[in-house]
Write a structure and sequence with these properties.
The chain has 2 domains: 250 residues, no CATH class; 121 residues, no CATH class. It is an alpha+beta fold and 409 residues long. The chain contains 12 helices and 22 strands. Helix 3 packs parallel to helix 4 and helix 4 crosses helix 6.
């Protein structure tokens, strides 16, 4: 079972309470392109992007050390947890929040400390491994979802936050230190009592496990390498906002897609691929529990046939109403040789198809939190790119040095 440990956090030092760290934070490294990296680096000379996307691994290590010497970053006086809250407006215009706890998740030999909730696409891990070797630090947390009911109630913050940041989408990020021994014990007990599944950071998790094995092979104890900084959020509907990830289709130019899909779907024309048409299609998808087809010349509603539903129900009941599974069994199987791309915004997907940068696209509905929880409890992996959890935590809110003691008591 998972073991979440308190650790001595390293944070940006500010003069105000709360300290506004908006200009030194960034999105997670893997969603920052070259232009955005340049803009973030220009925004503030101490922006964290200089660490997570450095000019070189040696430069990242030197910069991280220098910022600590110069007092830009400082370690907390004692080990603890960090409460992390994101406040935002959901897709229906209602105020929403996600509250979690950042600690050091103990790694193990069999990888059961945290389990994937969906299959992952192959991805090179050498970049993050080289950065970990050079900096000896977790510069960004991975994100885990806990099946522990009531975890969120243990994380209600008290008093003003230590730091706040507002991102470019208007999301407010706030952090508090959690150091009271009784609250630390309660959080550890809650997280340790139930399964933890990975929401984001599958590859960094595997990278840290590889680094742990590498250090152990050297014959010298390295307690810092035995854990990875992790944000843990309760897997509950009132704590999570889950978006769909749509499928861009490549390599099917000239294929009559509507005819190819009639064995597994009933296909209903849904009009022109305008912005209003795409929005109406998404509403129809929710109403009819259906997928959506975007072609250069039009839209269509794809209602799964009973045979497809029955096959999914027999093979994996937890995935029967998961559109990514319907896509794999009903669309991908009907289009041998199709190549896929992934985007989480339906309007942007339609624009890609209109430009001719994809032959077509299939829109999916967001998967429900109850379905994620049921699959996780059953140990069933969803197809790759099923869930897009939003908003994303900001990098720079907290750092963990592998060379500061981890409190494993």
């Amino acid at each position: 079972m998972p073991d979440l440990l308190p650790f001595t956090a390293i944070r940006y030092v500010g003069t105000g309470i709360p300290n506004d760290i908006s200009d030194v934070c960034s999105p997670p490294y893997d969603v920052v392109d070259a232009d955005q990296r340049a803009a973030l680096a220009a925004r503030d000379p101490h922006n964290v992007v200089r660490l997570v996307l450095p000019d070189s691994y040696a430069a990242a290590a030197a910069t991280f050390a220098r910022w600590q010497r110069e007092g830009v970053l400082a370690a907390d006086p004692a080990p603890g947890f960090t409460v992390y809250r994101m406040e935002f407006t959901d897709a229906d215009g209602r105020p929403a929040h996600t509250t979690g706890v950042i600690g050091a998740l103990r790694l193990d030999d069999d990888g059961q400390a945290a389990q994937p909730h969906e299959r992952t696409l192959p991805k090179a891990k050498s970049d993050r491994l080289e950065l970990l070797r050079a900096t000896r630090a977790n510069l960004e947390p991975i994100w885990g979802l806990s099946l522990a009911t009531g975890l969120g109630a243990l994380l209600e913050p008290g008093g003003p936050p230590l730091a706040v940041a507002t991102d470019d989408d208007g999301v407010r990020h706030s952090v508090w230190a959690l150091t009271a021994p009784d609250r630390i014990a309660a959080v550890r007990d809650a997280v340790g009592g139930r399964t933890l599944v990975l929401a984001d950071g599958h590859h960094r998790y595997e990278t840290s496990r590889n680094y742990r094995r590498e250090r152990a092979a050297g014959g010298r104890p390295d307690p810092g390498a035995d854990a990875i900084m992790t944000l843990v959020v309760e897997l509950a509907a009132d704590e999570l906002s889950v978006h769909a990830i749509h499928r861009l289709l490549h390599g099917v130019a000239g294929v009559d897609l509507r005819a190819a899909l009639t064995d597994t779907f009933t296909v209903e024309d849904a009009g022109a691929p305008t912005a209003d048409g795409v929005a109406a299609l998404e509403r129809a998808m929710v109403r009819d529990r259906a997928l959506g087809l975007v072609e250069p010349g039009g839209l269509a509603l794809l209602r799964p046939r009973p045979e497809l539903e029955a096959r999914l129900g027999a093979e994996a009941p937890e995935l029967r109403d998961v559109d990514s599974a319907r896509f794999d069994h009903g669309v991908r199987a009907a289009l041998p040789g199709v190549e896929l791309g992934y985007r989480n915004d339906a309007a942007a997907v339609a624009a890609v198809v209109a430009k001719g940068d994809a032959d077509a696209a299939v829109l999916l509905r967001p998967v429900g939190v109850d379905a994620i929880r049921a699959a996780a409890a059953a140990g069933v992996l969803m197809p790759e790119k099923t869930t897009y959890f939003a908003p994303k935590p900001r990098s720079g809110a907290v750092f963990r040095s592998l060379d500061l003691d981890v409190d494993s008591a």
